[in-house]
Design brief:
alpha+beta; seven-stranded antiparallel beta sheet; about 40% helix
């Protein structure tokens, strides 16, 4: 994908402070506040403690079909101090997303990222363009096993490229990657459409979009290898739970083939991920995998 990066300007309006697409009009703030009130034209796409993900069906300026990610941050005690010593969470998401796009990674286009104080809390809002296409989770159905293995490979190659660029995703899960080139449901694949077909790394990355980047960060130095292995373990564990160990192992092997690193570091990463995945699944016996240390 990556799409052209919009030109964003800093603004202050009605208590909001942040960045927005320069092509948008002043009515965007009113539209955001209406969306947060969850009117009849707003769908609650996902909700969890401290955050909501909303999809608005009413257009505002050029925000047709956009998604609003709404995050609440408590501002009492230590939380209040940290809020005023660091950038708002919405700004951090916007900054990280811009960096990812500049490095050639596929991410949603952010049109609005701002925060405001309200009733003792800081509200962080990010408005981004909706990405058409299914998530990997929606494709993992038994009748499409050969077809979705091809997509697992694409996601593995894209994940390796993400990590090689220095980024660690906050939650590398099948539900946080979108494949916009596909229909919502894969047909059963023919024998000729196998997972073994060669896929160029650039082609694979261009068709995988990483979303939910509120905890994605740049990691360098001695912490990078550990963060990478935990990220890959996340995906392998979810794949194992959903479709079985074979698909999780395929993801791991495709990832190792695509990542940059020495053969020893790849062997260490393989062992660590297998051990972590089996530990979380209750299938690991201590001592079954000999410990190795990565080389710098």
């Amino acid at each position: 994908m990556p799409t052209e990066e919009p030109y964003c300007k800093q603004f202050r309006q009605d208590g909001w402070w942040g960045w927005r697409d320069a092509s948008l009009q002043r009515g965007t703030v009113a539209w955001v506040e209406h969306t947060l009130s969850e009117g009849a034209d707003v769908e609650v796409f996902n909700q969890r403690v401290g955050s909501r993900l909303l999809r608005a069906t009413e257009d505002a300026d050029d925000l047709s079909g956009s998604v609003v990610s709404y995050v609440k941050v408590t501002t009492s005690g230590l939380g209040y101090l940290l809020t005023h010593l660091s950038l708002p969470a919405a700004w951090a998401v916007w900054s990280t997303t811009q960096r990812m796009r500049r490095r050639g990674l596929s991410v949603p286009v952010i049109r609005f990222a701002a925060a405001r104080q309200k009733r003792g809390r800081v509200e962080n809002v990010v408005v981004m363009d909706a990405v058409p296409g299914p998530r990997l989770t929606e494709l993992l159905v038994p009748e499409s096993v050969d077809a979705y293995r091809r997509e697992v490979r694409r996601v593995a190659i894209a994940s390796a490229r993400l990590h090689d660029a220095g980024f660690i995703h906050g939650d590398l899960l099948p539900g946080n990657v979108i494949l916009p080139h596909l229909p919502d449901r894969l047909p059963a694949a023919d024998a000729s459409d196998s997972a073994g077909e060669e896929i160029a790394a650039g082609e694979a990355e261009a068709e995988v979009v990483f979303i939910d980047n509120d905890r994605t960060r740049l990691v360098w130095g001695p912490w990078r290898f550990r963060a990478r292995y935990r990220n890959v373990s996340q995906m392998c564990f979810r794949l194992r739970r959903r479709v079985g160990w074979r698909e999780a192992r395929l993801f791991l092997e495709y990832y190792l083939d695509a990542m940059h690193g020495s053969a020893r570091n790849k062997a260490v990463l393989r062992q660590l991920v297998i051990r972590k995945t089996k530990q979380r699944s209750g299938k690991y016996t201590p001592g079954s995998v000999p410990p190795l240390k990565p080389r710098p």
